[in-house]
Amino acid sequence: MSRLVPGCGAQTVTASRFQGGALDTGASALQSLNRSTARSFSTSKPSRFLASSSRSKATPSPIQWRPPTEQCLDERPVLIIGAGNHGRRIALVWASALRSVTIYDTSPEALRDAIEYITDNLGAYCALRATHPGHVCGTADIRVATTTGRYEGTRDENEAADIEINSGSKGPWMAIDCLPDSLELKTAVLSHLEDLLPGNCIIASTSSSLQTAELAPHLQHPERLLNTHYFVPPRNRMVELMSSTRTYPEIFSFLEKQMENVGFTPITVPPGIQSPGFIFNRIWGAAKRETLAVLCEGVAKPGDVDALFRDFFHAEKGPCERMDEIGLDTVAKVETHSLEKQPELGKRYAMEWLRGEYVNRGKLGEKSGDGLFTREERDQLKAMHKRDHFKPVDETTGA
């Protein structure tokens, strides 16, 4: 069992060991900088930190980005910003194949949960892929997160070790934003972190609805910013890449190769194209909106819709069950944002129905118990999935 050890300065203690790597977690007393960041992590309302995120400076010259060498990749970690469900899953995959990972979050509880998840799953994931795990560090100290390289000493499990703090030469080679989809929150945190990260560090946003073109005006160097839209790793390994409109072109070929090395399958939107919702989410968004319209109009019940999807697509789950898993509040937020940018998509009444009948009543899906399906109905569906999981599927040519 991993444990978070509070302290001061930059310290870690070993939580668990794997062949080829170690899994550590550390948290320092938050400085005033971290306290302001913590407030912005927990709210989408403007704060002192958020209010200061806008840039009034003249546009600086583009950075001269160059791909890191193999030695740099070995010494410098991937930084995960946000230890929530999505962040810890992405961290697990990047930590395979001997890659170092740092997870940063202002919440000790989130860090503890993330480290426990990785402790429980990283060894099995690496065994499945015949790879070796890398060093994983969790920290609530922004200085450690942005300036620390791989720990290169030896220690026993009860020995605290100082982490090297330097000018950033061993800071992360890529920072992955796993924050909630709030434009204010992301621009505040990323514009601040940009000043602390090494100059050639790639900044990747995992947003499912916000394009980095919306974030780019708030950064001094949007040339190193891009969208990397993950789904639910490690089960889903596809990743969509899209430019901020100013992303340095060589980043894409480099990042595609690195993603493939750790087991992801990247798909890049062609340069010059901006696609709201990227690729899959454009299609999935239409399915969500139309499904909710069918339910709102009383055309069918959630079980009917999902049964049709399972039958036609040979899918394990239908759109209603998927939306309950995601959280109906998240669905409402994402689709409302899409409609604000593209009102021609329509079905706004379905979003209002979803909020009134479910979200405002606390029926959010799995996270609350009841959603489009009740808790009991979802338990029955899970039993059915378990029973039919390995059932052969006969595909019909031309169907």
The CATH topology label of the largest domain is: Rossmann fold
- How many separate structural domains? 2
Structural class: alpha/beta
| Ends apart, CA distance between termini | 50 Å
Task: List how many beta strands DSSP finds.
Answer: 13
- CATH architecture descriptor of the largest domain: 3-Layer(aba) Sandwich
Please, could you describe this protein's structure?
With 399 residues, the protein is α/β, with parallel strands linked by helices. It has 2 domains: 6-268, 3-Layer(aba) Sandwich (Rossmann fold), CATH 3.40.50; 282-388, Orthogonal Bundle (N-(1-d-carboxylethyl)-l-norvaline Dehydrogenase, domain 2), CATH 1.10.1040. Helices cover 41% and strands 14% of the residues. It contains 15 helices and 13 strands. The strands form 3 sheets. The chain has an 8-stranded mixed β-sheet with strand order 7-6-5-9-10-11-12-13, sandwiched between helices. The radius of gyration is 22 Å and the shape is globular.
Structural key phrases:
399 residues; alpha/beta; Rossmann fold; N-(1-d-carboxylethyl)-l-norvaline Dehydrogenase, domain 2; 2 domains; 8-stranded mixed beta sheet; 3-stranded antiparallel beta sheet; 13 strands; disordered N terminus
What is shown here, in short?
The protein has 399 residues and is an alpha/beta fold. The protein is built from 15 helices and 13 strands. It has helices at residues 32-42, 48-51, 70-75, 85-94, 108-129, 142-147, 183-194, 212-215, 250-261, 280-296, 302-313, 319-326, 328-341, 348-357, 375-388, and strands at 6-7, 11-18, 21-25, 27-28, 78-81, 101-104, 136-139, 161-162, 174-177, 202-205, 225-230, 238-243, 265-268.
